[in-house]
Amino acid sequence: MTDAPPTTALSLMSGGIGAPVTADQIRVARHEIQGFLLQYEFGLREIETKLSILSDEFQALHDYNPIEHVDSRVKTPESLIEKVGRKGVAADLASVREAITDIAGVRVTCAFVTDVYRLFDLLTRQDDVEVRQVKDYIAHPKANGYQSLHAIVEVPVFLSSGPVSVPVEVQFRTIAMDFWASLEHKIYYKYSAEVPAQLLDELKEAAGTAAELDARMERLHTEIHGARP
Fold it and tell me: What is the pLDDT of residues 67-110, one digit of tens each?
C-alpha cells in the first residue's frame, strides 16, 4: 500500500487530492493561500513606493519624469492554481514560492529606451533590492519581435511574524513597446494562440518599426531639450 500524498492548501483548492474535503478544510486552505498572496501584495507595494519616490524626485528636481505610468497585479488564487498545474510544480506553497516568480508583477512604461535602463539601474542599486534574474529583450528581442527589460527582484517585507523576502517581477518598456505587446496579446487571444503566419510576420515587422520610432523620437527629444539628467 502506498501512502497518500500530503494534503496542501493548493491541492485542496484545486480539488486535486481525490478525496472528499470538509468545509472547514476548504476554509483553512483558502485562508492559507490568501495569507501567502498577501505577502506578494506587500512586496508589490514596496516596489511601487520606490518607483513613486523616484518619479516624484525627478519631477521636482529635474522637471522631467522618466515614468509614464505604472501597472501592477498579484495573481488570483485561481490563476496561481492554474499555473501550478500547467508548470507541474509541486502543490505546496514553499515549492510555488521557489518556482513561480511572477506572482507579483509591475510594469513600468517609459518614454524612451534610455529611461528604461536608467530606472532599472536606480531601482536595483537600492540596498534592500536583490536582483535574482534579468532578461534583456531590448538588447536581444524575442523571435517574435517582443522587446522589454524583465527583472526578478526580491524585497524584504516586515510582517508581525518577522521579515519575508518576496520576489516581484518588474517589466520595463517604452510606450511603443507597450502598445505592440498589448496588440500582440489581443491577436493571440483572438486566434487562441494559433495566429496565421502572415500576421506573425507583420507583428515582427511592426516590432522593428516600433524600435525605430523609439530611437527617432528619443533623438528628436534630445535635439530639442538636450540631454536629460
Answer: 999 999 999 988 998 898 899 988 788 899 999 999 999 999 99
Q: How far apart are CA 49 and CA 75, in angstroms?
A: 20
Three-class SS of 150-173: EEEEEEEEEECCEEEEEEEEEEEE
pLDDT band at 133 (very low <50, low <70, confident <90, very high): very high
Counting DSSP H helices and E strands in the chain, the numbers are: 7, 5
**Residue environment code for 43-71, b if the CB has 16+ CB neighbours within 10 A, otherwise e:** bbebbeebbeebbeebeeeeeebbbbeee
- % of the chain surpassing 70 pLDDT: 89
Question: Edge-to-edge strands of the sheet including 104-110?
Answer: 67-74, 104-110, 162-174, 149-159, 130-136
Q: Are 129 and 157 a contacting pair, CB within 8 Å?
A: no
Point out the residues that are catalytic.
Answer: 169
